[in-house]
Amino acid sequence: MHTPLAQKHGQQEAADKVVDPSAYRSIVGSLHYLTLTRPDTTHAVNLASQFMQNPNSMHLQAVKRIIRYVKRTIDHGLRIISQSSFRLYGFSYADWAGCTITKRSTTRYCIHLGANCVSWSSRKQNTVARSSAEAEYRALAATAIELTWISYILQDIGMYIKIAPNLFCDNVSALYMTTNPVMHGRTKHVETRLPLCQREGSSRTIDYSVC
């Protein structure tokens, strides 16, 4: 098993056979602990945890795939390098309307300190994004908050970052929204999040880049 999640997993499709919810919740709950040291399983476990209330056979198959993947890659984990550059940077991504049931997008990000991955997340967004740029911008905002928080934590323990953290995103429209302070009809619905990224970008607290 080379990946923890199939490309066409079908977990959001209806299935006739319902499985034992207690056993399903127990397995997924245990897998949640594994995500503390295995970022590669975070998204698959997050998706499986969305069906705790009424799991079916498709969901159980997906969970078994994660377990088989973990067994195959039992020697994988986080690599911590002491002799690494003191540079903070992050990557953000969002799949627009990835959930076929609610049409909500999923925010994903990972943050590195040098060569070490120190923070990661995969979480469904609270509202439905009306465009891919909006979904990516919400992911940018979530990642910027996490980057800022980690910067403050490092400062509290006496470790100051001389270079502004870099935040990489693959959506050019979302990056333009961080530098353009002008509001227009297409960005009114994300107005509450615009000042956050624009403030961090204008003050050079965070450098936004396309990847």
Structure explained in plain terms:
With 211 residues, this protein is α/β, with parallel strands linked by helices. The chain has 2 domains: 21-73; 88-210, Nucleotidyltransferase, domain 5, CATH 3.30.420. The protein has 6 helices and 5 strands, in the order αααβββαβααβ. It has helices at residues 21-34, 42-48, 57-72, 132-156, 172-179, 194-202, and strands at 88-95, 106-113, 116-124, 166-169, 207-210. The protein has a 5-stranded mixed β-sheet. A hairpin with a 2-residue loop joins β2 and β3. α4 (132-156) crosses α5. The longest helix is centred in the last third of the chain and has 25 residues, at 132-156. The protein is globular. The model has no long low-confidence stretch (mean pLDDT 85). InterPro entries: DNA/RNA_pol_sf (IPR043502).
Under CATH, the topology of the largest domain can be stated as Nucleotidyltransferase, domain 5
Helix content: 25-40%
Can you list the strand order of the major beta sheet? Answer: 3-2-1-4-5
Alpha carbon gyration radius: 19 Å
Strand content of the residues, in percent?
15-25%
Shape: globular
Q: Tell me about the biggest sheet? A: 5 strands, mixed
Number of domains: 2
Label the CATH architecture of the largest domain: 2-Layer Sandwich
| Mean pLDDT metric | 85
| Total strand segments | 5
InterPro entries: DNA/RNA_pol_sf (IPR043502)
